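Possible regression after last week's pipeline update?

I re-ran a chain I had predicted before the update to compare outputs. Posting the input and the new output here so someone can diff against the archived version. Not blocking, just want to make sure nothing changed silently.
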Amino acid sequence: MPDATWKPRLIALDVDGTLLDPDTQTISAAVRTSVRRAVDAGAEVIVATGRSMLGALPVLADLGLTRGVALCSNGAVVLDAATGEAVSVETFEPAPVVAALARRVPGSILAVERLGEGNLVTAPFGPDELHGPQHVGTVEDVTAGPVPRLVANWVGHEPAEVVAAMRGAVLPGATYTLDHYEPWVTVVPQDVTKGAALEKLRAELGIPAAETFAAGDGDNDVQMLEWAAHGVAMGQGPAVVHAAADEVTAPVAEDGLAAALDRWFR
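New output (post-update):
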């Protein structure tokens, strides 16, 4: 735990399961107030999410974040919070990845991000599972060109089955993370993680590494929590996330993020 004089200047926050309760699909008043206190105190607050750009925009609006950037698609897309436009995008070739996934999680339905437009899917996802319009196409359509993010949804299976099926897997030219809420594999370009994107941003902002904070609850937050000088795992997260953090706070349903931030921004 940092000493009493420490206060973070760069704060990276996951969305689903950290800022936002997946059960209610809302950000609580307590969490919203805590984030605003940090912003008003001069901290650089960065939303860092696995969501697409379209999924991140309403979160920024809800929190009133209108300056700086947000990291979307696990860091593959950097979004200007003021304009709502992408300022940088990294992509990968999905065809070899899809071939590898077909051997591990056969029969999965696929979605690739169409930046700022929605998703191209091989079959419809649930209405609350993706953000923006869904356009149905073939596997050939999905793999026709480079993309920033691909999701494989192993419908009818449990997240633990996906973990077992993907154990030891290497996807060509890509990095993947698993979900503990849905039977999903989320794929982004090789070496792209929230942690890597945040380190690049930290250096650009000139903020010392010792003055960084991150909070998250999922597999895609592990590198971010390890990157931060003080990493906070949400109480409902799995053991692998807790192990990567310096502290475990209360679950999202109990406003665990607010409890963590209020230590410095009360």
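Follow-up from reviewer: compared with the archived run. The two ends are 17 Å apart (CA to CA). Marking as no regression found.
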